[in-house]
Description:
133 residues, three-stranded antiparallel beta sheet, 8% strand, elongated
Amino acid sequence: MDGYCAVIKRAHILAILVDIADRGAPIQANRTLAWIRRFFSLAALDIMGADPTIAAARLVWNWAERGRLDRFSVREAFNALRGTFPRVAMLREALRALEERGYLEVIEPPRDGPGRPPSPLVRVRPEIARGWR
């Protein structure tokens, strides 16, 4: 029940923000639209349920959003979130969930020669990253 109430609350806030954006000045409207995107993203994640992978995806997304990161490596994310993800495989599951939902793209670099392969690059969807600025 709490999850449903949170979604209703976010939907109400979203409606208020849309109303403000319709009446605001262009700069204020852009800021408001960035907030709308943020609340919509959180509401969408709430609707998806309490799946552990989704909860992990939310942690990764919050980290990227807090840092306003438009791109980062899997290694950077793992080092920053090491307390939450004891293995890279668990982080990769969360990234896969975000990629499936269109929030970001994981780019695997080509492997050149022997040794450890370079860390994959994660690129946040440009429309979302622009809203953070």
